[in-house]
Amino acid sequence: MNQKLGSGSLCFSKAPFIISTASVVGKKEGEGPLKNYFDVIGSDEKFGEENWEAAESALQKAALSLTLGKVNRKSEDVRYLFAGDLLGQTIASSFGLKEFEIPLFGLYGACSTCGESLSLAAMNVAAGYADCVAAVTSSHFASAEKQFRFPLEYANQRPKSATWTVTGSGAFLLATEEQAKEWNVKPIAKITGVTTGKIVDFGVKDSMNMGAAMAPAACDLIYQHFQDFTSTPEDYDHIITGDLGTVGSEILVGLLKEKGYDISAVHEDCGVKIYDGEKQGTGAGGSGCGCSAVTLSGYYLKQLKEKRIHKILFVPTGALLSTVSFNEGQTVPGIAHGVVIERI
Q: Out of 140, 195, 202, 261, which could bridge 56 as a Cys pair, Cβ 3.0 to 4.6 Å?
């Protein structure tokens, strides 16, 4: 029986398996430190499409197609699809995935969407509502800049605290142990638990400093996870945040030390890992839905599969703002979602 823990966590008695995953990224991401880990690196930032939004849809379509193809599956083998992105009305997902004709739950958790989609997908499989589900998310530098900040032609100067929205999409296929055996698929890893985050608002109003806005939510989630699971930082090979960058990561470590937990020895951030900030001019690091998705898919799941690491706490973070809320002078609330992933 699945077990409810504390105020926001679940521990799965029959852990859902991640049986396939794929990462598709843009040219800049393909020039970074993780270039050898991604499945596809695009040479054209529009991916053959006419505009940035269509390009992001193409990313999702390619990522899910590749994920299914790796295990010789078709869209009709998937019961539900959990997907989201940063664009208004999640149009990257709806236009990118419509041809698959899979029952869809459209999600918006800002840059935490990968954690949200994996959490909900794992819950469905663990509860017996589906034998196989997919989780997909994406972001695109140009489409995000166009929606949330300035047109690229404006060529505005970026402060050092700003992060660079990752162009990329990550897709994951989750299934029961029985389904994996029936399909003769060797699983990559398993999701053994989740902790769902709350909206946390420390009053930050600087939309160019997403790390500072999201770090308190990451702190709240990780602290709650430790309490619910009665665990400590030493129980994990890595505690991986999604997109705090260098600024937010430093704030997070400090906030958790105030609560009695020192994660500095095991903490890593996808936004820091995906770019070489000095050489690539990406400021404080990477962000966007695709940042944590492609880094988990391309890098960390490979480490688990190859048994280089045993257990991770994956914590993508999101800034819950829009151009409307920002222009009306609202703060930037944050949210985080935690997923415990272990090797088989």
A: 140
Question: Which residues make beta-bridge pairs with 111?
Answer: 109
| DSSP-derived 3-state class of residue 208 | coil
Token pair of 166 as six digits:
């990752």
Domains of the chain: 3-182 (3.40.47.40), 191-342 (3.40.47.40)
Q: Show the beta-strand stretches assigned E in 168-234.
A: 168-175, 189-196
pLDDT tens per residue across span 104-113: 999 999 899 9
Name which of 196, 248, 187, 194 is nearest 220 in CA terms: 196
* 274 φ, ψ (degrees, to nearest 5): -80, -25
169 - beta bridge partners?
A: 24, 138
Closest CA to 35 of 303, 306, 299: 299
pTM: 0.94
Give the chain's count of helices (H) and strands (E): 12, 16
| Cα-Cα-Cα-Cα dihedral sign, residues 282, 211, 147, 52 | positive
Helix (H, G, I), strand (E, B) or coil at 16: coil
